[in-house]
Amino acid sequence: MxxxxxxxxxxxxxxxxxxxxxxxxxxxxxxxxxxxxxKILRGLGLDSVRIAGSGSAxxxxxxxxxxxxxxxxxxxxxxxxxxFNYSHMSKEGMGKPGFVGQPYDDVTARIAEDGEIQVLTxxxxxxxxxxxxxxxxxxxxxxxxxxxxRGEIDNEGRLKIxxxxxxxxxxxxxxxxxxxxxxxxxxxxxxxxxACVGGSxxxxxxxxxxxxxxPKKKAQSRDERDTITIQLEKHLKAVNATLDGHEACxxxxxxxxxxxxxxxxxxxxxxxxxxxxxxxxxxxxDSWYGAKKAVIWHGW
Length: 300
Prior knowledge:
The chain folds into three domains: 4-76, no CATH class; 79-166, Roll (Luciferase, domain 3); 168-298, ANL, C-terminal domain (GMP Synthetase, Chain A, domain 3, 2-Layer Sandwich). The chain has ten helices and 14 strands. The chain has helices spanning 4-17, 20-27, 33-43, 61-69, 132-138, 179-186, 213-218, 222-240, 274-281, 285-291, and strands at residues 51-54, 73-78, 88-89, 102-103, 108-111, 116-120, 145-153, 159-164, 169-170, 176-177, 192-198, 205-211, 249-255, 295-298. The radius of gyration is 20 Å and the shape is globular. It starts with a helix and ends with a strand.
């Protein structure tokens, strides 16, 4: 079991040695397909792994499919401290990219009217220590845990996480935007390692990204930055084409700063700390929106 960022970093390391276009071409050749897959997994130290699991945050569906194409089944699970992490897990041969699996046999999940995932589980906590008010807010009258996550359940009972209720924000147009699903699409690119979508009260949403290790080193060169700019412009256009109009991001900001647990931009499990990132760059919003550019380089 690992955190999602590791799977992205593994993939970025492969792309450093072999560009995605070349790798995809080689994987389509029947005569060397198996050899290439084994070589990559061996290089990652994953050649003896039959099933790999991941938790703590969603993984882009395309990234799961990428590992599956290499012969590694990457299964996601879902749970919380409040239910002793006893909730959902993808089953071997039944995983579906973008979904965190089915509930355990003695667990029941439902979607409330506001889209919240609620779970009835024998792993449910007794309550928050000396905080009955918080406990009452977190547990429904019929014993379900209010997860605070939004989601969907397919006809096979598999759960899909679509964002956090508290993370949803309104743009100046009065439309709601759920950032997490958009961030998953943005990080599904070899140059991007982390992304944070924001834009509360603005004319449109935007996304701030941190580059993967290899591209970040290359970006020290102005020529390389120009190349990455073109790539990100195309990527943003492709992502926006999959979104509703009010969800589209007006621009990508590539920041030079390192986002780390040590400076508060990431949690110890490598999740972005949204309010820290948003407040840290808020003073730049007017100039970013006024620039009218699809890709903005900040701090370079």
